[in-house]
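R.M. (postdoc): so does anyone remember the format we settled on? I'll just put the structure tokens first.
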């Protein structure tokens, strides 16, 4: 049994496999989710049921969150029966959620009134890498607090980076997601142009994956997700829209124009309007397939 008690709130596509890894690593784990069946599943694996975010915090040294929206996160932390109601000196909150650095800093300021430390520690890698305990984690906050929590992060991630003060982890994560989502959309558009122009998708994939146009989107997501039509689970278009909204607000806040990023945001918002919100972000391919009247399948 590891010394520190961990609390975990948000047992979804990411939170469920991450918390399973923490249990396997021997931590005493207290869990909470608004969906009872998700709590039940973790209790069956050996976790302790938390009755509210406050209850989780009262039983934990480190509280981790993996929630779908900044609104859900703020209500879990600062709302009624929230984590901060049980906040005390020495407790640490680790935000695994993708949020704005401005939100991370606001949460850290609120938490500091109770002597609670906060790290923003968003993750890269979907549910598959979460299951493997092989996420990339980018951490912002006080370096000493990071060092104290490193042993927990090492149980869920393979590449762990300390990137600076509070909010820095979120900055790096947002840059990553803008690139990742943009790469997927551009890859889909370019690929389908090639198909309409007369070359089959598999040939284009084989050649471009050995050429300068390659990307993780083309090399991994195209053959393993798009071509196999595996759009369930993963990183949902709803969450992609949430992240792109955070990115465009941040750019406005900084008076920094976002050209390509704005187009990328509109493409994912269109996908959401077309009822693809719950599908993996790679289902954005369906927009381009619809325009061309064909389907990528190999
Ligand atoms: P998800 O929607 O699958 O899971 C979120 C969980 O939070 C659900 O179980 C939901 O019931 C629970 N929840 C919602 N509101 C709650 C509340 N008020 N109190 C308690 N529980 C509540 O989302 P996910 O894909 O697991 O993503 C979680 C976070 O991780 C998001 O911030 C996302 O942007 C980020 N992220 C996701 C991925 C991915 O590939 N899915 C990758 C990296 C980062």
């Amino acid at each position: 049994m590891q010394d520190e008690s961990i609390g975990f709130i948000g047992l979804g596509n990411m939170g469920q496999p991450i918390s399973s890894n923490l249990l396997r690593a021997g931590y005493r784990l207290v869990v909470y989710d608004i969906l009872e069946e998700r709590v039940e599943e973790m209790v069956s694996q050996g976790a302790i049921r938390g009755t509210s975010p406050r209850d989780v915090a009262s039983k934990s040294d480190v509280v981790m969150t993996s929630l779908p929206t900044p609104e859900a996160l703020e209500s879990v932390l600062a709302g009624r029966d929230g984590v901060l109601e049980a906040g005390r000196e020495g407790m640490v909150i680790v935000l695994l959620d993708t949020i704005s650095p401005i939100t991370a800093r606001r949460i850290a300021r609120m938490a500091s009134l109770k002597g609670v430390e906060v790290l923003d520690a968003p993750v890269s890698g979907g549910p598959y890498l979460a299951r493997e305990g092989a996420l990339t984690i980018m951490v912002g906050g006080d370096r000493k607090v990071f060092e104290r929590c490193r042993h927990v992060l090492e149980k869920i991630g393979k590449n762990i980076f300390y990137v600076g003060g509070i909010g820095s982890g979120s900055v790096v994560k947002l840059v990553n997601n803008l690139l990742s989502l943009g790469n997927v959309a551009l890859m889909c558009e370019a690929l389908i142009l090639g198909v309409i122009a007369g070359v089959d998708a598999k040939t284009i994939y084989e050649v471009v994956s050995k050429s300068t146009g390659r990307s993780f989107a083309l090399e991994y997501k195209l053959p393993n997700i798009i071509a196999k039509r595996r759009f369930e689970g993963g990183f949902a278009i709803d969450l992609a829209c949430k992240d792109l909204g955070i990115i465009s607000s941040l750019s406005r806040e900084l008076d920094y124009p976002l050209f390509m990023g704005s187009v990328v945001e509109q493409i994912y918002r269109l996908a959401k309007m077309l009822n693809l919100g719950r599908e993996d972000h790679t289902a954005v391919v369906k927009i381009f397939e619809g325009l061309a009247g064909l389907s990528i399948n190999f």
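R.M.: ...and that's the designed sequence above, right after the tokens. Also worth knowing: The domain at 5-166 is CATH 3.40.50.720 (Rossmann fold). The chain has two domains: 5-166, 171-292.
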